[in-house]
Design brief:
Number of domains of chain A: 2
Strand order of the largest sheet of chain A: 1-2-9-4-7
Number of strands of chain A: 12
Distance between the termini of chain A: 40 Å
Pfam families (chains A, B): cNMP_binding, HTH_Crp_2
Organism (chains A, B): Bradyrhizobium yuanmingense
Order of helices and strands of chain A: EHEEEEEEEEHHHEHHEEH
Protein name (chains A, B): CRP/FNR family nitrogen fixation transcriptional regulator
Domain HTH crp-type (chains A, B): 141-213
Number of helices of chain A: 7
CATH superfamily of the largest domain in chain A: Jelly Rolls
Oligomer: homodimer
Structural class of chain A: alpha+beta
Keywords (chains A, B): DNA-binding, Transcription, Transcription regulation
DNA sequence: CGGTCTTTTGAACGGGGTCAACTTGCGTGG
DNA sequence: CCACGCAAGTTGACCCCGTTCAAAAGACCG
C-alpha cells in the first residue's frame, strides 16, 4: 500500500542534498509494513530516500530461496544503482516514509553541479563497498561471525544507541546472512548466554550490546 | 614484477573508449604471473584495463581466509570502483598486459563528453550487478549449483568458445565460490561423469561444455 | 629423471540445515 | 476481559553437505 503525502520543493538531507542541491522536485510516499516498493525487473524510473522506517532489498531463486542484499535505514538512498531496470525487489519492513525523485532529474542536477559526478559516484561505490564486504561475509565467515558482524553493523548504522530496536525479523536477518532463522536465533541466544548482548523487555528485537569490542572481535 | 611497455595516445577499446574517447593518455604495463597490481588500502590513483591475461581481486580476513570478488579478463576494467583507497587486492593470475590511466583524467574526460556520466555510472553499476548476483550465489546456492554457475559465467565471458581455457587454479575458483578446492574438484569430476563437461588433453584447465542448457539449469 | 605444485580421490568429522515441538507476543472478536 | 488464531521466536534431536585430513597421482620444469 502506498500513500502520497505531498509534492514539494524543499531542503533535502544527506546524500540527496550533496548530489542534487535543493533544486530537485521530490515527493513523499508512505509504504505500509510488508509492501513492495518496486519489483525485480521493473523499470527503474525513480530514486528513493528513506525518511523514516526501513526497507529490505532482495533477490529470489526460482524455488523461493531468498538473498537479502541490504537493509536501508533513514537517510539511506536506494534504487539508484540501476541501469534501466531494477535488479532486485524492494519492500518496506515496517511503516516507512520514502522520498522519491526522478532518476533523470538527479543526473541532470548532478551535471550542472561542481563535484556532482564525484558525489554520484561515491553514492554508487558505497553500495559496491557494502556488497564487497558482504561477499566476504557470505563466502568465508562462520555463522557466529556473521551474526556478530551483523550486530556491529547495525549498531554503527543506528548511531550506537544504548538500546537498538531491530526493524527486521529473524528470517530477514537469516536471509541477509545466508543462514536459516534457527541458526540466527541460536547464535543470538549464545551471545546472550555469554553476556555479550541483552534482550530488553518482552520483545526479542530490542537488543543492548554489552561489550562492543568483544563483539567486533567475534566478527573478524 | 612490473614492466612498462610504453606510454602513448592511441585508440582504446570498449568501456574505456566509451568513457573517455580517445583523448586520454595511457600506458601499458606487463605483470608476471602471481604478482600484485595493487594492494588493499593503497591509494587508488589509477584505473586499469586488461589487454591480455587475467586478474583476480580479493579480500582477506585476519586469519588468512580469502574471498575473491571477481576475475577480470581482456577488455575488463577494474580498480575504478574506488573512492580514494583500494578496498581489495588485485593480482595477475597469468602473464598479463594492463593499460593504465589516471583516475582523475578519466573523470575529467567524462565530464566534457555528452553521456559520459551515464557511461561512467554504467561501468560502476556493472560491477555492482555482478556483486549482487554473486551474493545470491554465496548466500543461497549449493556447491554443485555454484560450480555450474561459474562454468556458465566463464563460458559467456570468454565468448562461448568450443574449448575454454581457465586461467585460474582450483583454489582460486574455490575462493571465488566460497568453497574448498576439494569440493570444486569433486563437483567438476561429477559433471564430467555426467557427460556435461569434458577435460581436454592433459591439463585440467581446458574444459569443453558439452550441454550448455543443462549446465545453465543446474545453476538456477 | 627428481622436486614441486596442482589436482584428484577417499575417509571421517562437524557446523549448520531440517524437522518438529513448544512458547510467546499480539491482534481480533466474542 | 478472556478466548482464540496466527505469526514470530526458541530450543532440541537428527542428519547431511561440505570441510578437514590424508594419500596418491598427475603436470610441469629444472
Amino acid at each position: 500500500m502506498l500513500v502520497n503525502i505531498n509534492t514539494h520543493r524543499r531542503p533535502i538531507d544527506g546524500h540527496l542534498a550533496a548530489l542534487a542541491g535543493e533544486r530537485v522536485l521530490c515527493s513523499e510516499y508512505r509504504y505500509h509494513k510488508g509492501t513492495e516498493i518496486f519489483g525485480e525487473g521493473e523499470e527503474a524510473e525513480y530514486v528513493y530516500q528513506i525518511v523514516t522506517g526501513a526497507v529490505r532489498t532482495h533477490k529470489l531463486l526460482a524455488d523461493g530461496r531468498r538473498q537479502i542484499n541490504a537493509f536501508h535505514l533513514p537517510c539511506d538512498m536506494f534504487g539508484f544503482e540501476n541501469g534501466s531496470n531494477h535488479r532486485f525487489t524492494a519492500e518496506a519492513i515496517v511503516e516507512t516514509d520514502v522520498r522519491i525523485m526522478r532518476r533523470g532529474s538527479v543526473i541532470e542536477a548532478t551535471e550542472s553541479r561542481t563535484g556532482g559526478i564525484r558525489s554520484l559516484l561515491r553514492l554508487v561505490t558505497q553500495n559496491l563497498k557494502h556488497a564487497e564486504d558482504h561477499m566476504l561475509l557470505l563466502g568465508r565467515k562462520t555463522a557466529p561471525e556473521r551474526v556478530a558482524t551483523f550486530l556491529v553493523e547495525m549498531d554503527a548504522r543506528l548511531g550506537h544507541p544504548r538500546l537498538m530496536t531491530l526493524p527486521m525479523s529473524r528470517r530477514d536477518i537469516a536471509d541477509y546472512l545466508g543462514l536459516t532463522l534457527e541458526t540466527v536465533s541460536r547464535a543470538l541466544s549464545r551471545l546472550r548466554d555469554q553476556n555479550l548482548i541483552r534482550f530488553e523487555g518482552t520483545t526479542q528485537r530490542r537488543i543492548e550490546l554489552l561489550r562492543r569490542e568483544q563483539l567486533a572481535e567475534l566478527g573478524p
